[in-house]
Amino acid sequence: MRIPLRAALLLALVCLLALLPMVASDYYTGLAVKIMIYALFALSLQLLVGGTGLVSLGHAAFFGISAYTVTLLSPESGAGNFFVLLPCAIACAMIYAAVTGILCLRTKGVYFIMVTLAFAQMAYYIFHDTKLGGGTDGIYMYFRPEWRIGDTVLLDVSKPYAFYLFTLACLLLVWGFLAMLMRSRFGAALTGIRANEQRMRAAGYSTLGYKLVAYILAGGLGGIAGVLYAAKDGFVNPELLAWEQSGLVLLMVILGGSGRLWGAIVGAVALTLLQEAFQSQALMGDLATHWHLPFGLAIIALVALLPKGLAGLPETWRALRNRRSADPRAAARS
To answer: In sequence order, what are the beta bridge partners of 155?
Structure first.
């Protein structure tokens, strides 16, 4: 049986990523882990933006709540148990998504954007202004959790390579889950809601219920990214829930291309690498201290030149070639 070319390329890419820490330095390995966590985070938002047509500016709330949950529940004297911590963190993110989603989803358009932002900021100030999350200083996780049954450790992710593989596995599982979800009847209903919600209601679909389930699922998947982020740095602070974090992940989805699931991964890679490049003293010199300005200009240029995102670049290129071949004058000039 012949393996399709796309599947073979994907398998080869996964194998190369799995072997990357063996040849790369600790800096590039850490950067790859950061990119994968943000790619997972962007995938969770892609379910709302690209899958359902819901543009949220408060998605960082689920990311931060789960990160704080796993940190607060981790013991100070030893490693916590992922079998306990991960479900608790995801559950807290999904509960917050369920409670706020019931209210947010009764609004549309710019009102939905503003309400999601308001609820995210509310969560931000809960951790920022109370002792629960250590205030502006944040709190530390002294030991990375481990997968443990009783006294038997199944997987110790305190080692950098083990944590790298664990993060890669989480990214692949979430991507596979969303790919299957969008190909299911539920995914088809979400696509219909994005295209024309009024027509879906006329066809007998409870669109509010579908959108609420998608909102809760997106919150839970964003919670997985938050757990990985907390375990990676061993430290959380209220900035994880700030509107800048929500704006950053929304930019990843838009830059990558909201019409394609893998566009979120491409956007996360591109935006994280752009940030690293503009903050690099070796590349930018003294301009690195004011990196926000060139970074913003680069984002504006990319969004303007690539309306379908980076994932739509091959399609844009083919359309341009077809247009040039259909125009004799353009073909003659070339």
So the answer is: 147
